[in-house]
Amino acid sequence: MHPINLEDKAMLVCLTIGIWGATKADQEVSKDTNQRWGAQDRAGKYLKKLVENAFPRCKSVRNKASSFHRTNTLPWEDGTGMRLLPAKNFWTYMNRMKDLEREFEKSLISDIDEWPLHITKAKAILGDMFKRGDYPSPLELKQKFYFKSAVFPMPSASTFGNFITDLGQEAVEAIQKNLEERLQRSASGAFRDITKNFYELVKELIDKLQDPGYTPTSNMVSSLTKYMTMLPIMDFTENPELDVLRRETEAKLCTLNTDLLRQHNGGERGKAAIIAQDILDKMGAFWGE
């Protein structure tokens, strides 16, 4: 992939959703357990589950938000918590996250309303390990939850030009080179993820076409069709070769006649599989293969 000016095409986004785990280390039980087994205090501790199946609504929203976040963004540097958000997808992403944040807040109110019931159930489950002081008040409980989606501009090597006086020309140029290499490496990884998803969907279709036990259905290409719709938005590189392949896929695979494919002679399925394999082979160009 040729170098691309990422500042004009994408930004970084970080999603963090906090849900209290409702657990606590019980020092008394830990000490008793270690003594019973002849172990030192540092050998281990007993982590007590304060409630069971709490905050189901918040967890459901978190799962939806996490799934949407991963589907509508691309991988970035590992360990940073950041994902690449194509500029074309900004408003779709942000509007959906705002809706999910409001849903999370409403879900939290409903889940907290059930808090007293969970405490009552915990008394029966924990027995002598139950301690009322382990359980926060509804107001304290609310502080343990959060839903945050933060957007950041793409780092720019040119920013470090401001430090020439303090660091010197050579040091600044080294920093700029290192950053630019990292940016392009991460951009290549994000683009590869786009083509990888494309590849896997076409490969899945080929497997179905070549499986005599599979009966083609009207939605057999629905996932592929949906991804082809998203592809121009997610491809922050605006790669013309990939767009040509996308158009070919839409024309030749997303329009497959499932009624003909269900015929037992296998002729139409064989033809479709050959077309799909040809598209799959062309994708090797994006990976240097």
State the domain count.
Answer: 2
How much of the sequence lies in strands comes to: 5-15%
SS summary, helix count: 11
Q: Give the helices and strands as they follow along the chain.
A: EEHEHEEHHHEHHHHHH
Computed over alpha carbons, the radius of gyration is 27 Å
Which strand order spans the largest sheet, edge to edge or round the barrel?
4-5-1-6
Low-confidence segments, given as residue ranges, are none
Distance between the termini: 13 Å
Largest sheet: 4 strands, antiparallel
User: What share of the residues lie within helices?
Assistant: 55-70%
Structural class: alpha+beta
How would the global form be characterised? extended
Roughly what is the average pLDDT, rounded to an integer? 90
| Strand segment count | 6
Notable traits:
single chain, 289 residues, alpha+beta, four-stranded antiparallel beta sheet, two-stranded antiparallel sheet, extended
How are the SSEs placed, and which strands pair?
Blueprint: E1 10-18, E2 23-26, H1 27-36, E3 46-49, H2 56-71, E4 74-75, E5 83-86, H3 90-113, H4 115-126, H5 138-142, E6 146-152, H6 164-167, H7 169-210, H8 222-234, H9 240-252, H10 258-261, H11 267-282
Antiparallel strand pairs: 1-5, 1-6, 2-3, 4-5
